[in-house]
Design goal:
Layout: H1 2-18, E1 33-36, H2 41-56, E2 61-64, H3 70-78, E3 85-88, H4 89-96, H5 107-122, E4 124-133, E5 136-141, H6 142-148, E6 164-167, H7 178-185, E7 191-194, H8 197-205, E8 211-215, H9 220-223, E9 226-228, E10 240-246, H10 247-252, H11 254-261, H12 269-280, H13 286-296
Parallel strand pairs: 1-2, 6-7, 6-8
Antiparallel strand pairs: 3-10, 4-10, 5-8, 5-9
């Protein structure tokens, strides 16, 4: 019964938002909408994309690029220091909601549990499901993988004890990261070194580490000639990209949520890889990348 009530509430709020007029109404709060981001390029781009969509709808915005990791952003959201940021379903499921791993990961189940759990626990709602997944994966250099016939994470078993893995600031210790790999695959790496994504990718490029916790939408996997290994035992959950807001913000700013909803399903995995490529290789500014994408997709006008 509790889940039915929560589902009804979510549906009602989404219908309310979708039916509102675009832009701030006279009854909406006039404060600047603040958007947070995590510590890597994709999050920067998505934060600016959200900001541009809101500006196009008539709102003032501020982007706090590189605000921090998962819990820094989430606590800032709950505390009203930011009003939205891009999160990932697998991260919400395992890290924020602390739900147990499924015997078999299912994308729809994780999304539904994420939506219900956020509302039930913290009165937070999913404003937009952006349309792509950026999953964690283990990657090694292509030439080493070819030489040792390594295609899957299971294939690392005989080598892992001699390998140093580079990770982002969270993967080494979070339950859906390295500890989960250790549990499901039954091996441990020799050592791990943590750093922001740029440092992590540079470390494997320069042979300071032999493996990394790669992101599946990151084009540095191809640029640095890395092989992303198949998670053949399905250890890691799905990570669909979503925008989240508090239900209080949604109630007070229905036009803002309507603007965010225009990004629902707007970015597929290939598109996100290309956007990340523009940041990493072409060294474009994240706001410029986001703006051109929105123009090209017809989501805003020049």
């Amino acid at each position: 019964m509790r889940k039915i009530i929560l589902t009804t509430l979510l549906v009602f709020m989404m219908l309310l938002v979708s039916g509102c007029t675009e832009g701030p109404s006279s009854e909406e709060e006039k404060e600047t909408i603040v958007i947070g981001s995590k510590l890597f390029q994709e999050s920067y781009i998505l934060a600016h994309m959200t900001g541009i969509m809101l500006e196009d709808a008539g709102y003032e915005t501020e982007v706090k690029q590189g605000l921090g990791g998962t819990f820094v952003n989430y606590e800032a959201l709950k505390g009203g220091e930011i009003h939205t940021y891009a999160e990932y379903t697998g991260t919400v499921y395992s890290q924020i909601l602390k739900l147990p791993a499924l015997e078999e990961w299912d994308q729809e189940v994780v999304l539904n549990e994420t939506e219900m759990g956020l509302m039930e626990t913290d009165n937070v709602m999913v404003a937009s499901n952006l349309g792509f997944e950026d999953a964690y994966a283990i990657a090694v250099k292509e030439d080493w993988a070819a030489e040792n016939d390594v295609m899957t994470v299971s294939d690392l078993e005989e080598y892992a004890g001699d390998l140093v893995i580079g990770t982002d600031p969270e993967f080494a210790t979070r339950e859906d990261g390295l500890p989960r790999i250790n549990e499901i695959y039954g091996f441990e790496f020799k050592e791990y070194k943590q750093g922001i994504s740029t440092v992590m990718y540079e470390a494997i490029k320069n042979d300071d580490v032999e493996a990394i916790s790669a992101y599946t939408t990151d084009t540095r996997n191809e640029v640095f000639e890395l092989r992303v290994l198949e998670d053949d035992k399905n250890a890691l959950p799905p990570y669909d990209a979503i925008l989240i807001v508090t239900d209080e913000f949604a109630e007070n700013n229905p036009g803002a949520v309507a603007a965010m909803q225009k990004l629902d399903g707007a970015i597929d995995t290939d598109a996100m890889r290309q956007l990340n490529y523009q940041f990493d290789v072409e060294q474009k500014e994240p706001r410029d990348i986001a703006y051109q994408f929105l123009i090209d997709e017809g989501l805003i006008q020049e």
